[in-house]
Amino acid sequence: MLAALLTGCTLGPDFQQPDTHAPQQWDQLEGEHAPSQPVAEPMQLRWWDSFHDPRLSALIEQVAARNLDLQIASARLLQSRALRSTVAADQQPSVDANAGYSRARNSAEGLSDPSGNAGKSAFNLWQGDLVAGWELDVWGRVRRQVEAADASVEVAENDRNGVLLALLAETAGDYIQLRAVQHTLQVTEDNLKVARHSLKLSEDRQAEGVATRLDVAQANAQVALIESRLPTLQARRDDLINALSLLAAEPPRSLQGSLLQAGELPAPQQTFAIGVPSELAERRPDIRQAQARLHAATASIGVAKADFYPRIRLSGNVGFQAMQLADFGAWDARRFAFGPQLSLPIFEGGRLKGTLALRQAQQQEAALNYRKVVLGAWHEIDDVLRLYNASQLRRDRLAEAVRQNRIALETAQRQYVEGAVDFLNVLTVQSALLASEEQWIDSAAAVSQALVGLYKALGGGWQAFDKV
């Protein structure tokens, strides 16, 4: 009962969950709004499924199951949990068993000889003990250590969650870039067909005496220029496939069979749920990790304060000791010792005060870092929301530019056949069409990339997978 009463005192400040100062609702965008907009509804954790791309969903599942960086982070988490177990062991009594035999001979001029022969002959000594000890956690030093260890486990958990969240975003981002490059390849090949048709047209007109060698040379140059784009695009496509293979812990080129064929570019839905601002601190691993670091630093202050006070340890042992094996275990061979041990720091040369000052400064740093992480999260979300809206508006304007350039190319080709314009007009319009088509593909990919970045900023997705 006395031990239970004594262990009720815990030094140091108790951790209080900090306020994130979350707004009641998301800030509204100013200016023109794009077609796809977020809504404050419960967020879909498996956000990659909203793209309705089975290949992307399967790839993310594969990365989450096999990625080596994630497995390394999981191993660090297991280490943290094991370390917590070793710290928590100090809360429980320790019991050890010792047994030994020795053949010895004492000095005839030294201390008393247990053999009774004044050091003139050797003797045997058989002994065995059960030794028990338990520190009374009067000031809560051990409890604060366990509290700090629990917080350190949370740090490791959220480190793993952060790695997983980054992997989800990186996988989706690389996949979107791959599809964009494949679409650019298709557009380039289509334009190459048009350029070759224009070349044949100019050669036919030259044979008829209508066109000049200049027209043919310009047409040949246009074909060569478009052909020069293909090797770079093909290399970029293969690089992205290899990047996805590495994320999935696969050898190079192992995913070419499933990814080499072009697929649709993942596109966002008209509306998508992003939850409410108050949920952000529970979702983002970096905020949760910063909070856990603050918790650990706060608990460490209690450990430093408890070091100023005496430690009380209850210890005892019981066993047998005999000089003859036949006597070992007999009632007269028994021995025991019980009693408390008290240790009190008297002079430490400022070490304890310095340690306490260090722990308090570390808590201040952790508190400031928490505020920085939260503030950075709000800025990141605000920036990505505006980027997502702007990317959509740019994509839609470029779609109109592509449509008008296609009309212009058809018109220029027809007028060239009729002799109304020279071949330079055809080349200029075709170059403009190819450039606008590539820009439109890049802008469409940028929209999806921005949406992936928004989901990452919101901290969603890692909850969909089993924890270690």
Automatic annotation (TrEMBL):
The subcellular location is: Cell outer membrane
Give the SUPFAM superfamilies listed for this entry: Outer membrane efflux proteins (OEP)
> Which domain of life does the protein's organism represent?
Bacteria
Q: Which Gene3D superfamilies match?
A: Outer membrane efflux proteins (OEP)
Which UniProt keywords are given for this protein, alphabetically ordered?
Cell outer membrane, Lipoprotein, Membrane, Palmitate, Transmembrane, Transmembrane beta strand
| Alphabetical list of InterPro entries matching this protein | MdtP/NodT-like, OMP_efflux
Record keyword Oxidoreductase present: no
Residues of the region (Disordered) are 94-116
Matching entries from Pfam families are given as: OEP (PF02321)
Bilayer disposition of the protein: Lipid-anchor
Instruction: Identify its protein family.
Output: Belongs to the outer membrane factor (OMF) (TC 1.B.17) family.
Query: What is this protein's name?
Result: RND transporter
